[in-house]
Amino acid sequence: MELIQYALDNIDLLATRTLEHIALVGVAVGIATLTGVPIGIAITKNERLAQAVLYAASIIVTIPSIALFGIMIPVLSLIGQGIGYLPAVIAVLLYSQLPIIRNTYTAINNVDPALREAARGIGMSPNQRLRMVEIPLAVPVIMAGVRTAVVLNIGVMAIAAYIGAGGLGTFISRGISQSDPRQLIVGAVAVSLLAIIVDYTLLYAQKRLTPRGMKLDASTA
Amino acid sequence: MIQLDNLTKVFDTPKGAVVAADHISMTVPSGEICILLGPSGCGKTTTLKMINRIVKPTSGKVFINGEDTTALDTQDLRRNIGYVIQQIGLFPNMTIEENITVVPKLLGWDKARYRERARELMAMISMEPDAFLKRFPSELSGGQQQRIGVARALAADPPVMLMDEPFGAIDPINRAVIQDEFLKMQQELKKTIMFVSHDIDEAIKMGDRVAIFREGKLVQHSSPDDLLAAPKNAFVESFLGEDRALKRLNLVKVEEVVSDEIATVSPGDTLETALARIDDYGYQNAILMVNDQRQPVGLITRAKARTTKGYCRDHFENVPATVTLEDDLRKVASLMFSQDATWLPCVDDEGRVCGQITQRAMTHHLGSRFRAREAATRNPDSAVKE
């Protein structure tokens, strides 16, 4: 009861923090999609490059977020942005690369070779094949990668409160420092709920973006 | 016309160079279907795919309608060659209409023209445009999908088509239907077609010419009839099967074998007359009875004619079956076997008797090519031995 009361009393702050959180993750994953998808497509042309890029992206994900923030403080301090918004977005941007690049790469690579041969055989150029066949068929899997990135980074972004980036993590960090379980729990529950809601929203978007002919395929299979 | 000049493909594999196609030279005249036939790994598919550069030739040239294609842009070349593959390869994200208008769109046709073309194509493959154009490939059966695959290849009306086991994944009943439809279309379209198959029966049915491949080499290139009658070596012979003489039954029409000499009786004749005529013509079992329009109405058996008195109209038996001039000998043989008959009356379009076909005449016709070949091989020819 006490928790619900606390949440209701601070509903404005909770809403502001939630929007901050969504904006941070949204901007970061948005940029990550714009970079990750082209990288994922580009590396399908070269197997060795693909392995190297995916390896690098995997390594980035193994760096603990706290450490990543720590590394960025001295670097970004050079431009006066050691803490706050920028390092938070960069961290999420980096963490998002693996799921987005990997899913794009896998999806494009897994396009049925028969379709690829048909597309070549009727005279599509490599760019036409990408635009008319490969990317439309890869969209569901690419979207799944974006979803993974978003959900993963809603959690990471909670930690960015420690470097003053704002967001729902603020409740958690204050809850810990002030030994206030109400703030701690409200923050944690809000982060979890946000992750679940955003996941379902993106799942819906993913279904909407799947070409109609492929949805029919899945339903009859 | 498709002309291949010393077309060669060498694949570099970890185990060393593999010659998939070895100096293939052949010509497919305009309007003909040439079947590339052989066991898997014989180079037939590689040869086909070098024509539209899905496989890049190591050396050699491809001429289409006399023009060397080496200098052509790959995409332009492919857009002017219809391509049908076994896996069909319809784009699942596109509707049927989008699928069959892909090539016209790539060629920059305007919208009204390619939409009109889509309806034409649907009519050509006997599918209702309104029912299918807006649907997706996954909503269609395998046979329907492959019809659409053929329509897509024909969309821009290319002079040349390449077909890689196009009907291989379709069940036998639908396959026969689609083959027949395709042959009917081809009679009007007169495309120059290269067609890969591993099915000897399909090759004989579809091909104006058949090219047999083995281990990257073209072994024999001839008409189906020549192939079956005169296989060049033991490999071709074994590939065609021990029943290859029977396979020729498909290729020969009744009109090539029919004898127009047939004695008949009419219902008003006496059985005595019938018996006399049976003996005169040396028939073993029976004579055909026809009506005023010379349509077959019954059989008078020798046994009946010999033992009974009276008129033919009172003592006839049913005609077991008749054949037409357009039937092939396979159907005739099947009727003969099922009816235990040694001959069948042959009728024209109006159902009038125009001759008869006998087992003897069939075996004689089929055997003449083999006998001619045996006579030739009595002068041993090293090329015939492998």
Describe the model.
The complex is a heterodimer of chains A (221) and B (386). Helices cover 83% and strands 0% of the residues of chain A. Chain A has helices at 2-9, 11-42, 47-62, 65-77, 85-109, 113-121, 126-159, 169-177, 181-209, 212-220. The longest helix of chain A has 34 residues, at 126-159. Chain A is elongated and about 65 Å long. The N and C termini of chain A lie far apart (48 Å). Chain B is built from 17 helices and 16 strands. In chain B, strands 6-7-8-3-9-10 form a 6-stranded mixed sheet, sandwiched between helices. In chain B, β7, α8 and β8 (192-197) form a beta-alpha-beta unit. Chain A binds chain B through residues 112, 114-115, 117-125, 128, 132-133, 136-137, 211-214, 216-217, 220, and chain B through 52, 54, 74-80, 83, 85, 87-95, 102-103, 106, 136-139, 152-153, 162. Chain B: This is Quaternary amine transport ATP-binding protein. Chain B: GO terms for molecular function: ATP binding. Chain B: Residues 316-373 form the CBS domain.
Global structural class of chain B: alpha/beta
Question: What is the CATH T-level topology of the largest domain in chain B?
Answer: Rossmann fold
Structural domain count of chain B? 2
Secondary structure class of chain A reads: mainly alpha
CATH architecture of the largest domain in chain B: 3-Layer(aba) Sandwich
Distance between the termini of chain A: 48 Å
In terms of DSSP E residues, the strand content of chain A is under 5%
Largest interface, with counts of residues having CB < 8 Å to the other chain, equals: A-B, 24 and 30 residues
- Overall pLDDT level of chain B: 90
Helices of chain B, by number, come to 17
